[in-house]
Predict the structure of DUF4386 family protein.
Amino acid sequence: MNERAWERAGAASGLVAAVLLLASLFLNPTAPTGDEPVLTFFYVAGNRATVVLAALLATLAAVVFLWFVGHLRHLLQRAEGGAEAFSPVVFAAGVVLSTMTMLSMLPVTALASMSRDISTASGSAVFVLSELHRLALGPLGLLVALFAATTGAAMVRREVLGPWVGWFGFAVAAIGLIAGVTAFYASGPFVTIAAMVTGIVFAVWIGDAAVLMLYRPEVDRVEVPGTAFAH
């Protein structure tokens, strides 16, 4: 394939990741919003098939997102002419975000497996797994903030796409930052709802960026960004 075809494949991976993430988020609209492990466990037990499917879709979204992150690194490296301004941070943040997303699915998947026979479920194990899943929301929000902020900055500088997509990224970063920090200090419905909102706006932003990249591959752009760092 030529460069344009490879770019469209990379952009398509971002769109697929966004769709998979949105599907995962909307599969469990009635999940408990509190931080009570018992409620979480009985919800998982009563909706095992849906919970496992949502976890699978989220994991697939994280895997496909890795391709999109690699695609972004390629585009930014080319636009930065080897200056390595934003591309290393975007790449690192994207890889860690994807990894953390996959890891955060393991506790809830374990709960689903455990719920096959409620009579053998250990109360301490249920508490630990539920808390691990909930506590993962803090790092995930902060990683979304880092990825969206650095990618948004590159977009504002026209290294990829355009400023309005970058400003959208800054808004996503602000929401992720609020959700991430709140998860470390608060509990209850607000934390879960904030995490849900973060996931939705992140997926919409990635999907919008991917569609624009599909419509106009970056190889067709002729604008050259300014200097990233002053000497």
